[in-house]
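Table S2 (text version). Query chain:
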Amino acid sequence: MEFDSITVRALEPDEIRALSSDDDIYVPDSDFRVPILIAARRKVDTDNDLRFGPEDSPKAAVRTIYHMETHVPFGQIYVADPKGQEMAAMGNSGTRMGMTLFIPGMDENETQERFRKAMRAEFGPGVIELWNMRTAPVRAIQWDVYEERTEWRSDGTRNGGGWAVAERILLKRGVHDGHQHHFHARQGWKIAKELHQPDETLAVDTL
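Corresponding structure-token output:
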């Protein structure tokens, strides 16, 4: 194991409540137990409506870089501070990269071979450990992707009358099949898709 030395200070409750999802914080790494206090970098989960617990024992919902959520007591949330206390943090051995690539006009075998060849040429043979590679064909179909929601608006009467109001926002037109699964809706909204309808175009003779 390799460790880095950092200096941190504990945040006050008001400072914790003011954190945004862009702020780096440090919390005790859950893979280690006291008295071995190892710091781990995290983000406050601002998508969680219940990110702060009750006043008598407040906790903050935080997320790892892999979007795994944990709940940490307020007294164990730190930020980097050159004048703070020294703490050990787990070092990094490298970078794990997960992605979904779309390679147009190429079958699976050719895609894998050319991808490996390109990686060897860029980083050198034996430098990259390929932990997992899965490929699948992409259907020749495209979608228009929307974000939509429906709200019930009361008419103010006691009998609960009212009407439903639908909202829809176009996110992207003409996405390839499978790409639509990587869109994420805001809270209270959902992702919807429809077959792509190409815009009508006017042919212009440029000669």
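Notes on Table S2: Helices lie at 13-17, 108-123. The mean pLDDT is 79.
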